[in-house]
Structure formats: structure tokens, C-alpha cells
Design a protein that fits this description.
alpha/beta; four-stranded parallel β-sheet; globular; binds iron/sulfur cluster
Length: 415
């Protein structure tokens, strides 16, 4: 190769997010740790993405997230194969594609990392959906391991005192369960420290997301989808705090130098629902071709959305409310309020909604939200039908036409 070819384009280099390298190293080390847990006398706990992970960190159990694994399967375009395997096993195509790909991956050690390490026990919190209950029951039977179900009542608007008492009693049961499966006492002092780190990590994540209030936004929702992994998998650890401290510095630096995720940012959009993991690059390029940047999203902000309910001096107690009032466990009117706040905060010109065939709790109220937003804000919105992992639900020409039409409306409105 000639020297000319080896020279890096300085403009492209300036655009690259440097922290990505560190993130990849951390995630590789994390999965190696999880895969070698049995050799090192550690326990592996599978847990749902919205579940209370901090007590697991206190017990030195390695939390593993089948949903995070599902996202990796989607991003590496292995979703269709695994979803079809699950359908051959008798699971309906309408079931969440994270669940289908995980159930199938277990039987063949499939997916980009050759399957997840087998769990020693499972923790299922239904604050995200009801699918996880059946999914985790299936996996508990498959691996013949204990399952703890952490039940959170749905919060249409308020959080009642009965709900508080009920969820609190489950935290106590959860701790007892952990003491039995891990064979040791729960350390309350360590819990305080883990709670403090969890809060610190969530605050830093919020700060990272908030750097997109700058114009141009130094990162996009597509970057946020990627950097989210640590606040999900390593929440409550120093590793996550250190990583987001570094990422925040980098984003502030980019903002100061006016380096935007989309070089000529002209239009600012908000994304709703999970990413389409197998098409993030295509979508990112498509919007960027219109100088449009997705500056915020309801998905990644869910991992810092309950900060207002958490108390550093009583993490265990405040966790009750923090883990119950999460984005997918509240009524549509509450979701609408959150989206309206985000529209203002990040100064967006339009909303892109992913009607996700897999995730019913996320997608069901979207048309109502869209109508209300049009009525109250007058902002254009776009609905695209797809799926986060299963590529069979993706129709490129139809989606492209809709994006083109939507961006024309945005252009006309904003000029
Ligand atoms: S249905 Fe939605 S919330 Fe439930 S596991 Fe699937 S993606 Fe997550």
C-alpha cells in the first residue's frame, strides 16, 4: 500500500470519538470475566435491563444481560437466524426478538460471542414488560437454576404508599434470596458504596447525554446507543464512573471546539423506542445526508430517568421508587410529559418514532403520543415500522421514502 493510502484523513480523525476504544476494552474484559466466572469461583446472574443490579454487585455476582446480548446479536446481523431457530422451537414470531434470539442462542451457543455464560441464578424485574417473566421462566428451567422475580406495580401517575411498602418488602426478599444463592451475608456498608457509585454513574450518564444541548451536538443518539452499554452492565462500579468521566470530558472538549456528530448540523431530531440495531449506520447516514442529527432519545435516557427519586443517603430505600417509576412502567400521559420536556431541553425540530414490532410496551401508546405532540407542539413526527433485531420486519425502500418526505416537511418548516 502506498504511503498516501496509509495517511489518515485529519478531518475524519477529528470526528471520531476516542473513548470508543476504551469502551471496547472494558466490554471485552467484562465478557471474559463473565465467561471464566466458574473457574474463578464467581457467580453469574442473568438480570433484566431495568432490574435492580446494585445488590448483585454487592454480592460480587457478575450481572449478565440477555437484552444487551440481544442488541449485539442485532448489530452483528445474526438476529434472523436465531429468531428463526426459536420459531422452529415453537416460539411465535410476535414474541420479543431479544427473547427469541436469547432462547435460541442458549441451545446452540450462538451469537457474536458464542453464547452467554450459563447463569447460576436469574433475576427478573417486570418494570419493563411482562414478556420477561415467561422468558426468564423458560431459561430458569433450561439451565435448572433458581429465579427471583422482582415485581413492580405499574405506575400510571402516582406512586402510592402501598406500592412503596410492597416493593420495599421485595427488596428484603431479594437480599435474602441473594444470601442463599451466593452463600454469604449481604454487606450493608458495601451497599452504601455501590449505591453511591450507581448514582454517580447515572449522573455522569445524564451529563454526557446533556452535552447534546450544544449546537452542534457533539454526539448523536446513535453514539448514545453504543455508550449506553456500561451504564446497563456495570452500573454501581468504579469502572462505569471512570469511563463516563472520560467520555464527558471528551464530549465537552468536542462541544468547545464545535465538533458536531453531524458536521453541518441544521436539524435536530428526537428518537423514540429502541434502536434498530442492524441499521444504525444506515439510519445515521440517512439523517446526516439531510444535515439532521438525532440529538436525544427516550431509550438511553431511561438509565438516568429516575435520578430524581434516588437518595444517596438511602439508596436501598429510594431504589423502591427509582426502579418502579421507570419510563416503560408509567402511563402514556407521563411519557408524553417526559418527551415534551426533552423537546424543549434539546431544542428539537421533529420526532422520529420507531414502532417496534418486538417491544409492545414501548410501541403501543406511540400513536397517541404522536397525536398529542402534534396537537401541543406542532412539531412534525415520523413513524417507522421496524424491529430492533429481526431484519424481516425492515422494508428499506418504504422507510427511505418516509424519511425523505419527513425531512422535506422539516426543511419547509425550518427553512
Ligand atoms: S418486550 Fe421490550 S421491554 Fe420487554 S424484553 Fe423485549 S425489548 Fe425489552
Amino acid at each position: 500500500m502506498s504511503e498516501e493510502h496509509l495517511k489518515k484523513d485529519p478531518e475524519k480523525e477529528k470526528m471520531k470519538v476516542k473513548s470508543i476504544k476504551k469502551m471496547k476494552e472494558i466490554m471485552t474484559a467484562y465478557y471474559i470475566d463473565a465467561k471464566t466466572a466458574a473457574q474463578n469461583g464467581k457467580k453469574v446472574a442473568w438480570i433484566t435491563s431495568g432490574g435492580p443490579v446494585e445488590p448483585l454487585i454487592v454480592m460480587d455476582a457478575i450481572p449478565v444481560y440477555p437484552e444487551n446480548h440481544g442488541a449485539m446479536i442485532g448489530a452483528s446481523k445474526m438476529g434472523v437466524d436465531l429468531c428463526e431457530k426459536a420459531e422452529d422451537m415453537g416460539y411465535c414470531r410476535d414474541i420479543c426478538s431479544y427473547a427469541r434470539s436469547d432462547i435460541a442462542a442458549s441451545t446452540v451457543n450462538g451469537g457474536p460471542i458464542g453464547g452467554l455464560p450459563a447463569p447460576d441464578f436469574l433475576v427478573c424485574c417486570n418494570n419493563i414488560c411482562g414478556t420477561v417473566l415467561k422468558w426468564y421462566e423458560v431459561q430458569a428451567r433450561y439451565y435448572k437454576v433458581p429465579l427471583f422475580i422482582f415485581d413492580t406495580p405499574f405506575c400510571h401517575t402516582e406512586f402510592s404508599s402501598e406500592a412503596r411498602k410492597y416493593v420495599r418488602s421485595q427488596i428484603d426478599e431479594y437480599i435474602k434470596f441473594l444470601e442463599v444463592v451466593c452463600g454469604k451475608k449481604f454487606d450493608m456498608d458495601k451497599m452504601k458504596e455501590v449505591g453511591r457509585l450507581s448514582l454517580q454513574g447515572q449522573r455522569l450518564w445524564q451529563d454526557v447525554l446533556d452535552t447534546t444541548m450544544n449546537k452542534p451536538a457533539p454526539m448523536s443518539a446513535f453514539d448514545a446507543f453504543f455508550h449506553l452499554a456500561l451504564i446497563v452492565t456495570l452500573r454501581g462500579t468504579q469502572t462505569a464512573v471512570d469511563y463516563y468521566t472520560m467520555l464527558l470530558e471528551e464530549m465537552k472538549e468536542r462541544a468547545a471546539q464545535k465538533i458536531g456528530a453531524v458536521p453541518n448540523e441544521r436539524y435536530r431530531l428526537l428518537w423514540d423506542n429502541l434502536p434498530v440495531w442492524f441499521k444504525t449506520k444506515w439510519l445515521s447516514d440517512k439523517f446526516a445526508s439531510y444535515d439532521a442529527c438525532l440529538v436525544a432519545d427516550t431509550y438511553t435516557s431511561a438509565w438516568c430517568g429516575s435520578l430524581e427519586y434516588l437518595d444517596e443517603n438511602d439508596f436501598l430505600g429510594s431504589m423502591v421508587e427509582g426502579y418502579t417509576r421507570i419510563y416503560l412502567n408509567i402511563g402514556v400521559d407521563e411519557m408524553l410529559k417526559i418527551i415534551k420536556k426533552m423537546i424543549k431541553k434539546y431544542d428539537v425540530d421533529g420526532i422520529v418514532m420507531h414502532s417496534n414490532r418486538s417491544c409492545k410496551p414501548y410501541s403501543l401508546g406511540q400513536y397517541d403520543i404522536m397525536k398529542s405532540l402534534q396537537r401541543d407542539t406542532g412539531l412534525p413526527s415520523l413513524m417507522i415500522e421496524a424491529d430492533m433485531v429481526d431484519e424481516r420486519a425492515w422494508s428499506e425502500s418504504q422507510i427511505e421514502t418516509r424519511i425523505d418526505a419527513f425531512m422535506e416537511i422539516i426543511k419547509q418548516k425550518k427553512g
